[in-house]
Every structure is written in structure tokens, then in C-alpha cells.
Amino acid sequence: MKKIKLITLGILLSFYAFGQAQVDTVSVPSEAMKKELKVAVTFPEGYESSEKNYPVLYLLHGGSGAFDDWHRKVTQPGLVPEMANKYDLIIVTPGVGPSSYYFDSPLLDSVQYATYITAELIPYVDQNFRTLAKKESRAISGLSMGGHGAITLSAKNPELFIAAGSMSGVMNIDTRMWEVGDGLKNMRREGQAMMLGPINYDAPFSKYTAVGLVQEMKTNGLAMIIDCGVDDFLISTNRQLHKLLLENEVNHEYIERPGAHTWPYWTEALPVHLAFFDKYLERK
């Protein structure tokens, strides 16, 4: 493996037992934001001893999360290394700022996370690890805010991904669609205003939100999987996007099942997404 800057975390030691998958934590610089961000990279068994290149899944965390959420919080310990082994791919879980939505803010230089993921992190991973560095071998998914990030980033950058997924995603950042109390709605809306300034929350929707990118989804041909629990406070936003996609004849897989905005739900959802992506990821 090419030598890179590593940050040792005690929590990662427990991961080596799962089928010999390896998890490294790296510090990835962002020129756009003048800072470094932590990223966990999970390699399948045999990565170091082989010479082949691997497809990559970028797996995004939620609004108040961190780069290691997918390792620490799943209710099935070692699930991410298990998925890396089962599907013989690299899984990258980047960390971003809280409630940043993977936007490029027009107002804040410190919130340029779309540029970071697409123009800084992906090239870094391709340059430092043995990846299949092409869209046909790259997928993206995430939970909650990360679902929003995966769908919007793929819609705006179809040259980078062959498939995208969302688990309990914020498919419309208009908090009027959220089935939560006014306190959280107001706090989130104030944060959005600081990052974005005034935007249009009604049709035609802003391009900063997933429901405003349906035409891009229609033309880019990405494979998409969207799922949400029926008791999730974001179910209305997922149903809204599903309806718009149907009306515009956009191919996608849509799932509703019992569950809420919880780690048990996302723990069950991740293997479903990996099975979906496996049908599309090219391994040559």
C-alpha cells in the first residue's frame, strides 16, 4: 500500500478481526476550505497482498455525525468491513461539517463540501489507493443529510458515479416537509439561510435540494435506490421525490418499510444498498 498520512484511533483496532478487512483513518486536505478532514477507508481482505484495483463506495454520514459513524454506530459490529469483504470493494466514509448538507455555500468559504467530495477527496483516494478510477466503478450513498449529499452530488456530477443511494435522506431541505417540532425546523432553516441565503423552497425547487434536480436525474442515467422508514420524520420528503421521479419517468428503486430515523434501520439498509450497487459496479 502506498504510504500516506495516518491517524491512529483506538476504535479501529477492533475492526481487524472481521475477515481480515483493514480500516485506516487518513487526513485528507481541502484546498477549497483550507483545512484537513478525517476519512475512514475500509479495504477488503487481500488488498495488500493483491495487485488488482477495486471499485469504491463513498458512504456519507448524517447531519450531526462524523467520519467514523458507520463504524461506531451500526447495530451490527463490523458491518462495513463485512460489506467490503463480501462485495470486494473499498468503502470510504468521509467526515464533513455538521448540518452542512454536502453543499458548496455561496456565502461561506468554510462550507465547500461538494467541491471537497468531488474535486479533492475522490482524486485523493484514486491517487493513493488501488481503485478503478472511473465512474463505472464508483457509487455513493448515505443516511439522512448524507442521503441528500449522495443524491445531489451524483445528480450534479454524473461523470463521477454509476449509481447512488439514499437512506432516510433529506430529499427536500424545506423543513415545512419535516414531521418534527418547530424548534428543530427553525434551527435547521436558520442554518440553511446562513449557508445559502434566500432560496426558493417551492416549485420550481432550488438546485440546492434533491427535489430540484429531477431533470438532471432524468438525463444522467444513474442507477438510484431510495429507501425510508414509514415512521421517519423525513418520509414526506422521500415520497415527494418518489412522486416527482415517477411523473418524470425516471428509473429508480424506491423502498418503504417499517422503521424510523435510527441506526437499526440504517444497519438493515446498508446491505440492501450494497446488493443494489453490486449489479452496476464494473470490476474490470
CATH topology: Rossmann fold
**Any idea of the CATH class?**
Alpha Beta
Tally of discrete structural domains? 1
Low-confidence stretches: 1-18
- Multimerization state: single chain
Kindly state the percentage of residues in helix.
25-40%
Signal peptide: 1-21
Protein name: Alpha/beta hydrolase
GO molecular function, one term: hydrolase activity
Organism: Algoriphagus namhaensis
Characterize this entry briefly.
With 284 residues, this protein is an alpha/beta fold. 32% of the residues lie in helices and 18% in strands. The chain has helices at residues 69-72, 79-87, 113-128, 145-156, 182-196, 214-220, 235-247, 263-278; strands at 22-30, 35-43, 56-60, 90-94, 138-142, 163-167, 223-229, 253-257.
Explain what this protein looks like in three dimensions.
By secondary structure, this protein is of the alpha/beta class. The chain has a single domain, classed as Rossmann fold (3-Layer(aba) Sandwich), CATH 3.40.50. The protein is 32% helix and 18% strand. An eight-stranded mixed beta sheet has the order 1-2-4-3-5-6-7-8, with helices on both faces. The longest helix has 16 residues. The N terminus is likely disordered. GO terms for molecular function: hydrolase activity. Keywords: Hydrolase, Signal. Pfam families: Esterase (PF00756).
Please tag this protein with its features.
eight-stranded mixed beta sheet; disordered N terminus; alpha/beta; 8 strands; 284 residues
Explain the layout of strands and helices.
Elements: E1 22-30, E2 35-43, E3 56-60, H1 69-72, H2 79-87, E4 90-94, H3 113-128, E5 138-142, H4 145-156, E6 163-167, H5 182-196, H6 214-220, E7 223-229, H7 235-247, E8 253-257, H8 263-278
Parallel strand pairs: 3-4, 3-5, 5-6, 6-7, 7-8
Antiparallel strand pairs: 1-2, 2-4
